[in-house]
Design a protein that fits this description.
This protein starts with a helix and ends with a strand. Helix content is 45%, strand content 17%. The longest helix is centred in the middle third of the chain and has 25 residues. It has 11 helices and 7 strands. The N terminus is likely disordered. It has a 7-stranded mixed beta sheet, with helices on both faces. It is an alpha/beta fold. The protein binds S-adenosylmethionine. S-adenosylmethionine binds next to β2.
Protein backbone atom coordinates (compact mmCIF):
# COMPACT_ATOMS: atom_id res chain seq x y z
CA UNK A 1 0.00 0.00 0.00
CA UNK A 2 1.45 3.41 -0.83
CA UNK A 3 2.09 5.93 1.94
CA UNK A 4 -0.67 8.29 0.84
CA UNK A 5 -3.33 5.57 0.90
CA UNK A 6 -2.06 4.22 4.21
CA UNK A 7 -2.25 7.70 5.67
CA UNK A 8 -5.83 8.25 4.69
CA UNK A 9 -6.83 4.88 6.11
CA UNK A 10 -4.89 5.32 9.34
CA UNK A 11 -6.32 8.80 9.83
CA UNK A 12 -9.81 7.60 9.02
CA UNK A 13 -9.93 10.31 6.40
CA UNK A 14 -12.91 10.29 4.09
CA UNK A 15 -13.41 12.06 0.79
CA UNK A 16 -12.88 15.56 2.12
CA UNK A 17 -10.28 15.97 4.83
CA UNK A 18 -10.00 19.23 6.73
CA UNK A 19 -7.44 17.82 9.14
CA UNK A 20 -4.79 16.75 6.67
CA UNK A 21 -2.27 18.84 4.77
CA UNK A 22 -3.32 20.18 1.40
CA UNK A 23 -2.75 19.66 -2.30
CA UNK A 24 -1.75 23.33 -2.71
CA UNK A 25 1.03 22.92 -0.14
CA UNK A 26 2.17 19.68 -1.79
CA UNK A 27 2.27 21.44 -5.14
CA UNK A 28 4.41 24.24 -3.71
CA UNK A 29 6.81 21.80 -2.02
CA UNK A 30 7.15 19.95 -5.32
CA UNK A 31 7.94 23.21 -7.13
CA UNK A 32 10.92 23.84 -4.84
CA UNK A 33 11.82 20.20 -4.24
CA UNK A 34 15.02 20.49 -6.32
CA UNK A 35 16.30 23.21 -3.97
CA UNK A 36 15.32 21.24 -0.85
CA UNK A 37 17.09 18.12 -2.16
CA UNK A 38 20.15 20.05 -3.31
CA UNK A 39 20.38 21.73 0.13
CA UNK A 40 20.31 18.50 2.16
CA UNK A 41 22.77 16.86 -0.25
CA UNK A 42 25.17 19.81 0.06
CA UNK A 43 24.88 19.66 3.83
CA UNK A 44 25.59 15.93 3.91
CA UNK A 45 28.55 16.20 1.53
CA UNK A 46 30.08 18.91 3.72
CA UNK A 47 29.50 17.31 7.13
CA UNK A 48 28.83 13.55 6.58
CA UNK A 49 27.47 12.79 10.07
CA UNK A 50 26.94 9.13 10.97
CA UNK A 51 23.63 10.06 12.56
CA UNK A 52 21.67 12.74 10.68
CA UNK A 53 19.13 14.80 12.66
CA UNK A 54 16.20 16.09 10.60
CA UNK A 55 13.23 18.07 11.91
CA UNK A 56 10.03 18.96 10.10
CA UNK A 57 8.37 21.89 11.89
CA UNK A 58 4.61 22.29 11.49
CA UNK A 59 4.43 18.79 9.97
CA UNK A 60 0.61 18.54 10.32
CA UNK A 61 -0.91 15.10 9.71
CA UNK A 62 -1.54 13.92 6.23
CA UNK A 63 0.20 12.47 3.19
CA UNK A 64 2.67 15.41 2.89
CA UNK A 65 4.13 14.63 6.34
CA UNK A 66 5.87 11.38 5.45
CA UNK A 67 6.30 12.12 1.76
CA UNK A 68 8.86 14.86 2.46
CA UNK A 69 10.77 12.52 4.82
CA UNK A 70 10.86 9.86 2.10
CA UNK A 71 12.29 12.42 -0.37
CA UNK A 72 14.97 13.57 2.08
CA UNK A 73 16.10 10.02 2.87
CA UNK A 74 16.24 9.17 -0.86
CA UNK A 75 18.32 12.32 -1.50
CA UNK A 76 20.93 11.28 1.07
CA UNK A 77 21.03 7.70 -0.22
CA UNK A 78 21.71 9.04 -3.70
CA UNK A 79 24.64 11.09 -2.36
CA UNK A 80 26.26 8.17 -0.53
CA UNK A 81 28.54 6.06 -2.66
CA UNK A 82 29.52 2.48 -1.88
CA UNK A 83 32.49 3.93 -0.01
CA UNK A 84 30.47 6.10 2.34
CA UNK A 85 27.72 4.20 4.14
CA UNK A 86 24.24 5.69 4.45
CA UNK A 87 23.86 7.38 7.88
CA UNK A 88 21.15 6.59 10.37
CA UNK A 89 18.31 9.08 10.31
CA UNK A 90 16.78 10.70 13.40
CA UNK A 91 13.56 12.29 12.23
CA UNK A 92 11.68 14.66 14.54
CA UNK A 93 8.15 15.55 13.50
CA UNK A 94 6.91 18.70 15.21
CA UNK A 95 3.55 20.40 15.38
CA UNK A 96 1.31 21.88 18.06
CA UNK A 97 0.10 19.37 20.69
CA UNK A 98 -3.40 19.46 19.16
CA UNK A 99 -2.04 17.91 15.94
CA UNK A 100 -3.19 14.38 15.16
CA UNK A 101 0.18 12.70 15.82
CA UNK A 102 -1.56 9.35 16.25
CA UNK A 103 -2.54 9.23 12.61
CA UNK A 104 1.12 9.77 11.65
CA UNK A 105 2.24 6.99 13.97
CA UNK A 106 -0.43 4.65 12.61
CA UNK A 107 0.85 5.23 9.07
CA UNK A 108 4.47 4.38 10.04
CA UNK A 109 4.32 0.57 9.59
CA UNK A 110 3.25 1.06 5.96
CA UNK A 111 5.89 3.75 5.50
CA UNK A 112 8.65 1.37 6.65
CA UNK A 113 7.18 -1.53 4.65
CA UNK A 114 7.04 0.53 1.42
CA UNK A 115 10.65 1.52 1.95
CA UNK A 116 11.74 -2.12 2.37
CA UNK A 117 9.74 -3.23 -0.66
CA UNK A 118 11.37 -0.54 -2.78
CA UNK A 119 14.78 -1.90 -1.75
CA UNK A 120 13.81 -5.34 -3.00
CA UNK A 121 15.53 -7.06 -0.11
CA UNK A 122 18.53 -4.70 -0.37
CA UNK A 123 19.98 -2.48 2.36
CA UNK A 124 17.43 -0.31 4.10
CA UNK A 125 18.70 2.62 6.21
CA UNK A 126 17.73 2.98 9.86
CA UNK A 127 15.14 5.71 10.24
CA UNK A 128 14.02 6.58 13.77
CA UNK A 129 10.91 8.74 13.66
CA UNK A 130 9.50 10.57 16.69
CA UNK A 131 6.78 13.15 17.34
CA UNK A 132 7.77 16.39 19.10
CA UNK A 133 4.63 18.27 20.12
CA UNK A 134 5.12 21.95 21.02
CA UNK A 135 5.44 25.42 19.54
CA UNK A 136 8.40 26.13 17.29
CA UNK A 137 8.40 29.61 18.88
CA UNK A 138 10.62 28.26 21.65
CA UNK A 139 13.05 25.39 22.27
CA UNK A 140 11.98 21.94 21.10
CA UNK A 141 15.15 19.86 20.72
CA UNK A 142 18.43 19.30 22.60
CA UNK A 143 21.47 21.46 21.81
CA UNK A 144 23.24 20.68 18.53
CA UNK A 145 20.97 17.76 17.72
CA UNK A 146 19.80 18.82 14.25
CA UNK A 147 21.55 18.96 10.89
CA UNK A 148 18.60 19.82 8.69
CA UNK A 149 15.34 21.65 9.44
CA UNK A 150 12.41 21.70 7.05
CA UNK A 151 9.27 23.77 7.55
CA UNK A 152 6.56 24.21 4.98
CA UNK A 153 3.61 26.62 5.15
CA UNK A 154 3.79 27.05 8.91
CA UNK A 155 5.90 30.10 9.77
CA UNK A 156 3.34 32.65 8.56
CA UNK A 157 1.28 31.54 11.60
CA UNK A 158 2.11 33.88 14.45
CA UNK A 159 2.34 32.70 18.05
CA UNK A 160 -0.74 34.79 18.87
CA UNK A 161 -3.02 37.60 17.68
CA UNK A 162 -0.85 40.72 18.20
CA UNK A 163 -1.76 42.37 21.54
CA UNK A 164 -1.38 45.82 19.87
CA UNK A 165 -4.70 45.48 18.05
CA UNK A 166 -6.71 45.64 21.30
CA UNK A 167 -7.70 48.87 23.06
CA UNK A 168 -7.55 49.42 26.84
CA UNK A 169 -10.86 47.64 27.32
CA UNK A 170 -9.49 44.64 25.45
CA UNK A 171 -11.65 45.30 22.34
CA UNK A 172 -10.20 44.87 18.87
CA UNK A 173 -9.60 48.14 16.98
CA UNK A 174 -9.82 46.19 13.70
CA UNK A 175 -13.63 46.17 13.39
CA UNK A 176 -15.24 44.32 10.46
CA UNK A 177 -11.89 42.78 9.54
CA UNK A 178 -10.10 39.60 10.50
CA UNK A 179 -6.70 40.69 9.11
CA UNK A 180 -5.10 43.90 7.83
CA UNK A 181 -7.41 45.54 5.27
CA UNK A 182 -7.96 48.96 3.62
CA UNK A 183 -10.16 50.03 6.54
CA UNK A 184 -7.76 48.89 9.29
CA UNK A 185 -6.21 51.64 11.45
CA UNK A 186 -2.45 52.09 10.90
CA UNK A 187 -1.77 50.63 14.37
CA UNK A 188 -3.10 47.26 13.17
CA UNK A 189 -0.43 46.72 10.50
CA UNK A 190 2.25 47.90 12.96
CA UNK A 191 1.02 45.42 15.55
CA UNK A 192 1.07 42.53 13.07
CA UNK A 193 4.49 43.43 11.71
CA UNK A 194 5.88 43.79 15.23
CA UNK A 195 4.52 40.38 16.26
CA UNK A 196 6.13 38.78 13.19
CA UNK A 197 9.53 40.26 14.08
CA UNK A 198 9.29 39.03 17.68
CA UNK A 199 8.15 35.55 16.65
CA UNK A 200 10.59 35.06 13.79
CA UNK A 201 13.45 36.23 15.99
CA UNK A 202 12.48 33.75 18.71
CA UNK A 203 12.23 31.00 16.09
CA UNK A 204 15.75 31.74 14.79
CA UNK A 205 17.18 32.04 18.28
CA UNK A 206 15.67 28.70 19.37
CA UNK A 207 16.86 26.90 16.23
CA UNK A 208 20.33 28.43 16.55
CA UNK A 209 20.86 26.37 19.70
CA UNK A 210 19.48 23.17 18.21
CA UNK A 211 21.15 23.21 14.77
CA UNK A 212 24.86 22.31 14.47
CA UNK A 213 27.26 24.82 12.89
CA UNK A 214 26.96 24.39 9.09
CA UNK A 215 23.48 22.84 9.51
CA UNK A 216 20.79 24.06 7.15
CA UNK A 217 17.14 25.06 7.16
CA UNK A 218 14.71 25.13 4.24
CA UNK A 219 11.65 27.21 5.07
CA UNK A 220 8.61 27.75 2.88
CA UNK A 221 6.16 30.42 4.04
CA UNK A 222 3.55 32.77 2.65
CA UNK A 223 4.50 36.41 2.18
CA UNK A 224 3.78 39.54 0.17
CA UNK A 225 5.41 41.10 -2.86
CA UNK A 226 5.96 44.67 -1.66
CA UNK A 227 5.52 47.12 1.23
CA UNK A 228 1.71 47.64 0.97
CA UNK A 229 0.02 45.32 3.45
CA UNK A 230 -3.13 45.22 1.37
CA UNK A 231 -2.78 43.67 -2.07
CA UNK A 232 -4.43 41.07 -4.28
CA UNK A 233 -2.39 38.33 -2.63
CA UNK A 234 -2.73 36.61 0.75
CA UNK A 235 -4.41 39.63 2.42
CA UNK A 236 -7.14 39.44 -0.23
CA UNK A 237 -8.00 35.87 0.80
CA UNK A 238 -8.61 37.11 4.37
CA UNK A 239 -10.68 40.00 3.05
CA UNK A 240 -12.92 37.47 1.25
CA UNK A 241 -13.22 35.39 4.42
CA UNK A 242 -14.26 38.57 6.31
CA UNK A 243 -16.82 39.19 3.57
CA UNK A 244 -18.13 35.68 3.85
CA UNK A 245 -18.53 36.16 7.63
CA UNK A 246 -20.21 39.56 7.05
CA UNK A 247 -22.72 37.79 4.75
CA UNK A 248 -23.62 35.49 7.64
CA UNK A 249 -24.03 38.53 9.92
CA UNK A 250 -26.40 40.19 7.43
CA UNK A 251 -28.46 36.97 7.27
CA UNK A 252 -28.67 36.85 11.05
CA UNK A 253 -26.66 33.62 11.25
CA UNK A 254 -24.00 35.16 13.47
CA UNK A 255 -23.49 38.48 15.30
CA UNK A 256 -21.54 41.60 14.29
CA UNK A 257 -19.73 41.62 17.70
CA UNK A 258 -18.37 38.16 16.93
CA UNK A 259 -16.97 39.35 13.60
CA UNK A 260 -15.53 42.49 15.22
CA UNK A 261 -13.69 40.45 17.83
CA UNK A 262 -12.25 37.74 15.55
CA UNK A 263 -8.70 38.16 14.19
CA UNK A 264 -6.31 35.73 12.53
CA UNK A 265 -2.82 35.16 13.95
CA UNK A 266 -1.26 35.24 10.49
CA UNK A 267 1.27 37.55 8.85
CA UNK A 268 2.59 37.76 5.29
CA UNK A 269 6.07 39.35 5.53
CA UNK A 270 8.05 40.95 2.71
CA UNK A 271 11.47 39.77 1.53
CA UNK A 272 13.00 42.80 3.29
CA UNK A 273 11.32 42.01 6.63
CA UNK A 274 12.64 38.44 6.50
CA UNK A 275 16.16 39.56 5.52
CA UNK A 276 16.21 42.23 8.22
CA UNK A 277 15.27 39.79 10.98
CA UNK A 278 17.77 37.12 9.87
CA UNK A 279 20.50 39.79 9.86
CA UNK A 280 19.43 41.25 13.20
CA UNK A 281 19.20 37.89 14.98
CA UNK A 282 22.58 36.98 13.54
CA UNK A 283 22.87 33.18 13.93
CA UNK A 284 22.08 32.16 10.35
CA UNK A 285 23.31 33.14 6.90
CA UNK A 286 20.47 33.62 4.42
CA UNK A 287 21.92 31.70 1.43
CA UNK A 288 18.85 32.06 -0.69
CA UNK A 289 15.44 33.75 -0.72
CA UNK A 290 13.13 33.08 -3.63
CA UNK A 291 9.62 34.38 -4.17
CA UNK A 292 7.23 32.29 -6.23
CA UNK A 293 3.58 31.67 -6.96
CA UNK A 294 2.00 28.22 -6.81
CA UNK A 295 1.15 27.10 -10.37
CA UNK A 296 -2.57 26.75 -10.87
CA UNK A 297 -3.26 23.81 -13.09
CA UNK A 298 -7.05 24.14 -12.88
CA UNK A 299 -7.65 21.75 -15.79
CA UNK A 300 -6.42 18.77 -13.78
CA UNK A 301 -8.20 19.79 -10.56
CA UNK A 302 -11.31 17.90 -9.58
CA UNK A 303 -12.46 20.91 -7.56
CA UNK A 304 -12.62 24.59 -8.53
CA UNK A 305 -9.72 26.78 -7.38
CA UNK A 306 -12.05 28.48 -4.87
CA UNK A 307 -12.96 25.12 -3.34
CA UNK A 308 -9.29 24.13 -3.08
CA UNK A 309 -8.48 27.44 -1.33
CA UNK A 310 -11.52 27.10 0.95
CA UNK A 311 -10.48 23.55 1.92
CA UNK A 312 -6.92 24.69 2.64
CA UNK A 313 -8.03 27.67 4.76
CA UNK A 314 -10.64 25.54 6.53
CA UNK A 315 -7.97 22.99 7.50
CA UNK A 316 -6.15 25.58 9.61
CA UNK A 317 -8.99 27.89 10.66
CA UNK A 318 -11.83 25.45 11.31
CA UNK A 319 -11.23 24.84 15.01
CA UNK A 320 -10.66 28.52 15.82
CA UNK A 321 -13.65 29.78 13.82
CA UNK A 322 -15.76 26.93 15.23
CA UNK A 323 -14.81 27.93 18.81
CA UNK A 324 -15.52 31.61 18.21
CA UNK A 325 -18.63 31.57 16.01
CA UNK A 326 -19.98 28.07 16.68
CA UNK A 327 -19.57 25.02 14.46
CA UNK A 328 -22.99 25.40 12.87
CA UNK A 329 -21.77 28.11 10.47
CA UNK A 330 -18.73 26.25 9.14
CA UNK A 331 -20.17 24.49 6.08
CA UNK A 332 -22.08 27.53 4.80
CA UNK A 333 -19.19 29.87 5.58
CA UNK A 334 -16.60 27.90 3.60
CA UNK A 335 -18.95 27.10 0.70
CA UNK A 336 -19.70 30.79 0.38
CA UNK A 337 -15.99 31.62 0.73
CA UNK A 338 -15.00 29.20 -2.05
CA UNK A 339 -17.63 30.79 -4.29
CA UNK A 340 -16.36 34.31 -3.55
CA UNK A 341 -12.78 33.24 -4.40
CA UNK A 342 -13.98 31.78 -7.73
CA UNK A 343 -16.02 34.91 -8.54
CA UNK A 344 -13.06 37.19 -7.80
CA UNK A 345 -10.67 34.99 -9.79
CA UNK A 346 -13.08 35.38 -12.72
CA UNK A 347 -12.66 39.16 -12.52
CA UNK A 348 -8.92 39.37 -11.86
CA UNK A 349 -6.22 36.93 -10.70
CA UNK A 350 -5.48 36.62 -6.98
CA UNK A 351 -1.73 36.14 -6.57
CA UNK A 352 -0.68 34.77 -3.18
CA UNK A 353 3.11 34.85 -2.82
CA UNK A 354 5.29 32.20 -1.23
CA UNK A 355 8.91 32.53 -0.09
CA UNK A 356 11.50 29.81 -0.02
CA UNK A 357 14.41 30.45 2.35
CA UNK A 358 17.64 28.50 2.65
CA UNK A 359 19.65 29.30 5.78
CA UNK A 360 22.95 28.01 7.15
CA UNK A 361 23.93 28.08 10.83
CA UNK A 362 26.95 30.34 11.23
CA UNK A 363 30.04 29.72 13.29
CA UNK A 364 29.85 32.41 15.96
C1 LIG B 1 -0.78 24.57 6.70
S1 LIG B 1 -0.15 23.36 7.78
C2 LIG B 1 1.30 22.83 6.87
C3 LIG B 1 1.46 21.36 6.88
C4 LIG B 1 2.64 20.78 6.12
N1 LIG B 1 3.90 21.28 6.61
C5 LIG B 1 2.50 20.99 4.64
O1 LIG B 1 3.30 21.75 4.07
O2 LIG B 1 1.62 20.39 4.04
C6 LIG B 1 0.55 24.39 9.04
C7 LIG B 1 0.90 23.63 10.28
O3 LIG B 1 1.68 24.46 11.13
C8 LIG B 1 1.34 24.15 12.46
N2 LIG B 1 1.76 25.25 13.34
C9 LIG B 1 1.29 26.52 13.37
N3 LIG B 1 1.90 27.22 14.33
C10 LIG B 1 2.79 26.37 14.92
C11 LIG B 1 3.72 26.51 16.00
N4 LIG B 1 3.86 27.66 16.63
N5 LIG B 1 4.48 25.44 16.34
C12 LIG B 1 4.35 24.27 15.70
N6 LIG B 1 3.47 24.07 14.65
C13 LIG B 1 2.71 25.12 14.29
C14 LIG B 1 -0.16 23.97 12.39
O4 LIG B 1 -0.66 23.27 13.51
C15 LIG B 1 -0.33 23.22 11.08
O5 LIG B 1 -0.34 21.83 11.24
Amino acid sequence: MDVEKAFHMAAGVGKTSYASNSTLQKKASDMVKDITIETIQELYTATAPKSLGIADLGCSSGPNTLSIIKDLVAAIEETCSSLSPVPEFRVYLNDLPSNDFNSIFKALPDFYRDLKEQKNGGYCPSIFIAGYPGSFYGRLFPNNSLHFVHSSYSLHWLSKVPPGIYDEQGRSINKDNIYISETSPEAVSHAYSNQFHLDFSLFLQSRSQEVVVGGKMVIILLGRAGPPHVDRGNSFFWKLLSQSLANLVSRGETQQEKLDSYEVHFYAPTKEEIEEEVRRQGSFELDRIKMFEIERDTTSMEMSYGTVVATTVRAVQESMIGDHFGEAILDVLFENYGRLVDEEMGKEEIKPMTFLLVLTKKYI
